[in-house]
Design a protein that fits this description.
Length: about 750
């Protein structure tokens, strides 16, 4: 061994030993039983198993399991069983050791958790869509046996996100997309607020680096004014709390960059127009633990005498906590500076549960080591719902993920049964959702409901406080249209399962049609053949293709044989409309007349390097499909997606469709970059609102056409009681043009808002 190698090994050993010592120090300072020996044994075992292996970042591989264990211990508050499982979580996956070896050395519990983590390795997803769904099902099934599996998986994902810089850009989009689509909502559902926020911010940072930096800079530049507002606002509150003898801490909570950006996109507002960037958190230690809810209300009464209260912004999660265990009282007050400020009142116990989730519940119970056997009704009910979906899951990966996400994201409402029992439902639930939540039979035979003793249809949306009675008929059957007005995962899953059962007979007939056709043309059947024909007829799923054949909405012919035997000819694009199906831009003249007659789409070859970015230029732009779901133009953060025909779709990275693609088909994601030189024009639409006056429309068109030399395609302005709303269709080169136009329009007297819309 040469000197250079020795030095590197010594440096590695110091790094590893320091990280492990930090873990032991953190664990020893916690309330858990002091099982340092078993943790040390797990560390030594994992260190030996991963010896000589390095991560992409260059550091020894063992640093990753130590970091995951550190997060599990310090940030989630888990005990020795979880710490051992975290240290060992990659051993079975990456080395020759088996789950049986782990069980023999560390016991059945650690082995069960490691086994659960091994089954869902490599993110949720493998290479194929079906494997992705299967892995996610395994994750959820294992989670319902022992919640620690998903808690450690979230810790694992957090460390991977913290070290994402070493990955290629297409991998970054895949991992960040999965994180936003699945892991952040899971963390939120389990009450891990701090981790959820960090996962969202890290995903945002890698997907939209420029936007992230811009918001970080704005937060830094407005920090001093926020501090001043916070000090002035809280000074009278501190005075009154001290006079009442309350033991408290007042914290300044600043909205995260991702939350700010999300709100800017959702509400079409600028950073300066977001009023709730600052919130105030009062965390108190109750004099009596049993009386903490009353003490919350006492603080609320005291501060409501100091400031005016927003009448519609009182949120009481004390008596009915959120499904993830969150408890607090939120009130919005008008400060003396004329700004609304939200105040969150919670006890130290509630605060810890808000940040650390369900794991923190056990700190306030007797005993040391956390055991997940307590009867946590909300969590158990949620896991029960997940199990029900798993009993009859959708065959398609993305449908399955969508069903689960409905349960992860929804905020809650409280409704009552006819007997007065309270039931928690996701916001937006309908009477039919409520029927399925009680029993599948009730849902499938539901004909209507009585809400607060009034007759309503199945599609009626429920509100908090409604009392609901379901009406049924044995003659009723599940209708395909029902899927459009249910919003809960359980109802959607059950309706789809029943419809699938009804549709299987037709699909079977479709399969028989296909088999006869292939046999007549001397072609052997395979899933690939069915997939190629489905794609040829613009159908995404094989089952839908069989259904169409069975219903005779598709008739197979000579063109299908040519497609399978590779004899198809390249199609000419007959006119502007069909050419523009995937091309939301015009030629290099404003009239858009010099578009080429023939368009050849780029087909990704088998040995294509997916780690390298594709560059979209003025010359090759016609080779890619620009999707109408998000209407990307130069300057947008975009990515490429290899579709079933091996052609490349271009999406905005923030597009909802792209979010599903990143999560479900991550191996098909490409990094895409613009290399445009203002030759082509792209369609764009701006919405303007403001106070009407004589000559306003003329001034708006002057700004766009004369000052900026931009071609206006169409203008539509509606005025109602001196307030106008206008939509302007333009042709621009890129995002930079759009920003310039919007900024100039905002300077026009009377224009209050100017935003780009799809």
């Amino acid at each position: 061994m040469d000197d250079e190698q020795k030095k590197r090994e010594e440096a590695d050993n110091i790094l590893i030993n320091d990280a492990f010592q930090h873990l032991i120090d953190t664990y020893s300072a916690s309330r858990h039983r002091k099982k340092v020996d078993i943790i040390t044994k797990a560390f030594n075992f994992a260190r030996q198993a991963h010896k000589g292996v390095r991560r992409l970042s260059g550091e020894p591989y063992i640093m990753h399991p130590i970091a995951v264990a550190q997060i599990a211990c310090e940030e989630v508050g888990l005990g020795s069983t979880s710490i051992c499982a975290a240290l060992l979580h990659d051993v079975v996956e990456d080395t020759d050791f088996t789950t049986e070896d782990i069980e023999n050395i560390f016991g059945a519990k650690v082995a069960q958790i490691v086994d659960g983590l091994t089954k869902i390795s490599g993110g949720i997803f493998g290479d194929q869509a079906s494997a992705q769904a299967e892995n996610f099902k395994k994750l959820l099934l294992t989670m319902s046996d022992d919640i620690r599996v998903i808690l450690i998986k979230i810790c694992d994902r957090l460390h991977n996100m913290r070290t994402l810089a070493s990955q290629a850009a297409n991998k970054q989009y895949k991992i960040a997309g999965e994180t936003l689509y699945i892991y952040a909502p899971l963390a939120n559902r389990l009450g891990l607020n701090r981790i959820k926020t960090e996962l969202e911010n890290l995903s945002f940072r890698y997907e939209h680096p420029d936007e992230y930096l811009r918001i970080e800079e704005k937060l830094a530049s407005t920090q001093a004014s926020r501090h001043t507002l916070f000090d002035q606002f809280t000074a009278p509150i501190e005075k009154v709390l001290k006079s009442q003898g309350v033991e408290y801490v007042i914290k300044e909570r600043v909205k995260s960059p991702y939350s700010i950006w999300n709100k800017m996109q959702r509400k079409h507002v600028t950073f300066e127009e977001i009023y709730d960037i600052l919130a105030v958190r009062i965390v108190f230690t109750p004099k009596e633990r049993d009386n903490e809810i009353n003490e919350c209300f006492n603080i609320y009464v005291a501060i409501s005498k100091l400031y005016n209260i927003h009448p519609n912004r009182l949120r009481d999660w004390l008596n009915h906590p959120k499904a993830n265990g969150y408890q607090a009282l939120h009130v919005t007050l008008m400060s003396k500076q004329g700004k609304w400020i939200e105040v969150q009142i919670r006890s130290d116990r509630m605060d810890e549960i808000a940040e650390q989730g369900f794991a923190a519940h056990w700190k306030y119970k007797e005993g040391g080591e956390i055991e997940f056997t307590e009867d946590e009704n909300e969590l158990n009910e949620w896991l029960h719902t997940i199990k029900e979906i798993l009993d009859d899951p959708q065959p398609d990966a993305m449908d399955f993920l969508d069903a689960i996400k409905l349960n992860l994201f929804a905020s809650e409402i409280f409704v009552f049964t006819p007997k007065g029992e309270i039931k928690t439902m996701p916001a937006g639930s309908t009477a039919l959702d409520f029927a399925f939540s009680i029993h599948t039979f009730l849902g499938s035979h539901c004909i209507g409901a009585k809400v607060n003793h009034k007759l309503v249809p199945l599609s009626h949306k429920l509100q908090s406080g409604d009392q609901v009675e379901i009406l049924t008929s044995k003659a009723q059957h599940v209708q395909p249209s029902w899927i459009n007005f249910v919003s809960t995962a359980k109802a959607k899953a059950k309706i789809q399962a029943i419809l699938r059962r009804d549709g299987r007979q037709i699909q079977k007939q479709g399969e028989e049609v296909l088999m006869s056709f292939l046999k007549a043309n001397d072609i052997e059947y395979s899933n690939t053949v069915a997939g190629v024909l489905a794609a040829f007829h613009d159908i995404d799923k094989r089952d839908d293709f069989f259904q169409a054949l069975g219903e005779k909405t598709i008739l197979l012919g000579e063109s299908d044989v040519n497609e399978l035997k590779g004899k198809k000819k390249r199609k000419k694009v007959p006119n502007l409309q069909s050419w523009k199906k995937y091309v939301p831009f015009l030629g290099n003249s404003k009239s858009g007349k010099d578009i080429g007659e023939e368009r050849q789409l780029f087909v990704v070859p088998d040995k294509f390097n997916r780690k390298k970015p594709i560059y979209i230029t003025d010359d090759n732009i016609t080779q890619y499909k620009f999707m109408h779901c998000c209407h990307p133009i130069p300057g947008d953060d975009v990515l490429g997606f290899i579709d079933n025909k091996k052609q490349v779709e271009i999406h905005k990275r923030s597009c909802p469709v792209a979010a599903k693609l990143k999560s479900g088909y991550g191996n098909r994601i490409l990094d895409a970059k613009w290399d445009m030189h203002k030759k082509l024009f792209f369609d764009a639409t701006i919405q303007i609102r403001g106070i009407d006056r004589i000559g306003l429309l003329n001034e708006v068109t002057q700004v766009i056409s004369r000052q900026l030399n931009v071609n206006i395609h169409k203008v539509n302005i509606v005025c109602d009681n001196e307030i106008f709303t206008g939509v302007v269709d333009l042709r621009v080169h890129d995002r930079e043009d759009m920003k310039k136009i919007i900024n100039n329009l905002k300077k026009v007297d009377g224009v209050q808002e100017a935003v780009q819309i799809m």
